[in-house]
Amino acid sequence: MSPSSPHAPDNCIFCKIAAGQIPSRKVYEDDEIFVFHDIHPWAPVHFLMIPRTHMASMADVGPEHAGLLGRMMALAPRLALEQGCKPYPEGGFRMVVNTGAEGGQEVHHLHIHVMGGPRPWLKG
Ligand code: 5GP
Ligand code: ZN
């Protein structure tokens, strides 16, 4: 879905990043998933995984999204290692999906944070 889709807000920053209209430090992309470094990293490794199709949050997820979300989850370990996270169990990584105001979500295009690397981290 492009940012001009009737279902995506015109001003969605992550739609624009996935479309290449706003620059980002790309980690990975395929037909349905785009991955890029967080602009304000909390940890030595901190990237965001998004579906190219606009979805506001996990609150919009239903059974029809299980395949896509499963592919995003399954991709994360490989990308975490490629980005410098040490292998499990000594290394590892954290995955977070903030959802809604009380969940701490600031950008309303579903995204999975993947964080790792040596501690201490800026947060958490
Ligand atoms: P949230 O609080 O919604 O879970 O996280 C949004 C994340 O997106 C934040 O960690 C923030 O640093 C990141 N972010 C916001 N705007 C941009 C941007 O324009 N480029 C990149 N690369 N990251 C962004
Ligand atoms: Zn979007």
Provide an overview of this structure:
- This protein is α+β, with helices and mostly antiparallel strands and 124 residues long.
- The chain has a single domain, classed as HIT-like (HIT family, subunit A, 2-Layer Sandwich).
- The protein contains two helices and five strands.
- The chain has a five-stranded antiparallel sheet, with helices on one face.
- The longest helix has 17 residues, at 66-82.
- The mean pLDDT is 95.
- Zinc ion is lined by residues 8, 12, 14-15, 54, 109.
CATH superfamily: HIT-like
What are the segments in which pLDDT stays under 50 over at least 5 consecutive residues? Answer: none
Number of domains: 1
- How would you sum up the global shape? globular
Gyration radius, rounded: 14 Å
The small molecules bound here are: guanosine-5'-monophosphate, zinc ion
Query: What is the overall pLDDT average?
Result: 95
- Order of strands in the sheet with most strands: 1-2-3-5-4
Distance between the termini: 34 Å
Number of beta strands: 5
Largest sheet: 5 strands, antiparallel
CATH class placement: Alpha Beta
In DSSP terms (H or I, runs of 4 or more residues), the helix count works out at 2
| Beta-strand percent range | 15-25%
N-to-C order of helices and strands: HEEEHEE
